[in-house]
Amino acid sequence: MNLLGIKAQFDDAIVARMVELSKRLNQLAIKPRSRTKSPKLDTIDFVGKQEVSKLVNALSMIDKQFDDWISLQKDYRELLKSVTVDKVEILTRHKST
Predict the structure, then answer these.
(1) CB 10 within 8 A of CB 83
(2) Which of 8, 30, 43, 47 has the fewest Cβ atoms surrounding its Cβ within 10 A?
(3) Residue 52 CB burial class (10 angstroms; 0-12, 13-18, ≥19)
(4) In this structure, is the dihedral angle defined by the CA atoms of residues 42, 60, 15 and 84, taken in order, positive or negative?
(5) Alpha helix (H) ranges present in 1-97?
(6) Tens-digit pLDDT profile for residues 3-39
(7) DSSP of 52-78, one letter per residue?
(8) Helix axes 12-27, 63-83, angle to 10 degrees
């Protein structure tokens, strides 16, 4: 995060919690059968395939799995927010109409 200009302070407990949350998120990840279909999309680059996989994953989850995934994402976000020194702001460009 520091490389992106986001000042953050990590300790072993935070890193361990991040690893734990990542593992739990991966447990809810796409099933191998779905992954094998993704590479067949030759016209889509790697990042595009990842996004397609995320969409398929979200659509294939039952509601309980999706609720668990959302909860874990919120926990991960709160953890990231807890280690940042300053509030993170993203500058966006808006088209004026």
Answers:
(1) yes
(2) 43
(3) middle
(4) positive
(5) 12-27, 32-37, 46-60, 63-83
(6) 777 788 888 999 999 999 999 988 887 665 555 565 6
(7) HHHHHHHHHS-HHHHHHHHHHHHHHHH
(8) 160
Q: Give me 36's structure tokens.
A: 């094998």
Token output for 58 = 């979200």
Distance of CA 64 to the CA centre of its chain: 18
CA distance linking residue 51 with residue 43, whole number of Å: 14
